[in-house]
Amino acid sequence: MADDVSQVPPVPQLPASAGALIFDRSGRLLIVKTTYKKGWSVPGGQIEPGESPWDACRRETLEECGLRVDRARLVCVDFLRPRQGRLGGLRLLFDCGKFRDDQLGVIRLQADEIEQFRLVPSREAVELLTGPVGRRVAASIGAERCVYLEEGRLVDGVQ
């Protein structure tokens, strides 16, 4: 008798995205202004089905600003609860290190998604970034280990 897959409950789907923290030699952070949402963000985007978070980070960074990232360190996992108008999910941040001026000089924005970019000091970046993104970046910059957040905030009992 064949297994009846109709009896298996559906597996929950959890949207996820991956972003890149990219700095210049003086420690300024690359931020981007998207055309499809208000405020500033970091390069990155949704993880496609079957794609790893690292591959998504690399793909999105290349698509959005023309930069190739070859190495990074996972610095943040942030869980967002679903709410009205937002699916929630996981947001991952990779610290991709400091780029030389000549590397940053090749930035080419994806015109239909990114309208401008800036390199700004970390403190200014956190102020410009929207809600959980700003809190996520603030918690990640200078962290010696990967931080776990919920809604961009540290969670009691999780180290």
Can you characterise this structure?
The structure is a single chain. This protein is of the alpha+beta class and 159 residues long. 21% of the residues lie in helices and 33% in strands. The protein has one domain: Alpha-Beta Complex (Nucleoside Triphosphate Pyrophosphohydrolase). The strands form two sheets. A six-stranded mixed β-sheet has the order 4-1-6-5-8-9, sandwiched between helices. The protein has a three-stranded antiparallel β-sheet with strand order 3-2-7. Helix 3 packs antiparallel against helix 4.
List the helices and strands and how they pair.
Blueprint: E1 16-24, E2 29-34, E3 40-41, E4 44-46, H1 53-65, E5 73-80, E6 89-99, H2 101-104, E7 114-120, H3 122-128, H4 131-140, E8 147-150, E9 153-154
Parallel strand pairs: 1-6, 5-8
Antiparallel strand pairs: 1-4, 2-3, 2-7, 5-6, 8-9
- Which outline best applies? globular
What is the name of the CATH class?
Answer: Alpha Beta
Low-pLDDT segments, ≥5 res: none
Going by CATH, the architecture would be Alpha-Beta Complex
- The SSE order reads EEEEHEEHEHHEE
Biggest sheet overview = 6 strands, mixed
Number of helices: 4
- Fill in the CATH topology: Nucleoside Triphosphate Pyrophosphohydrolase
Q: How many domain modules?
A: 1
| Estimated share of beta-strand residues | 25-35%
Number of DSSP-assigned strands: 9
Alpha-carbon Rg, integer: 17 Å
* Helical coverage, percent range: 10-25%
User: Roughly what is the average pLDDT, rounded to an integer?
Assistant: 92
**CATH evolutionary superfamily:** Nucleoside Triphosphate Pyrophosphohydrolase
User: End-to-end distance, in Å?
Assistant: 48 Å
- Secondary-structure-derived class: alpha+beta
In the sheet with the most strands, the strands line up as: 4-1-6-5-8-9
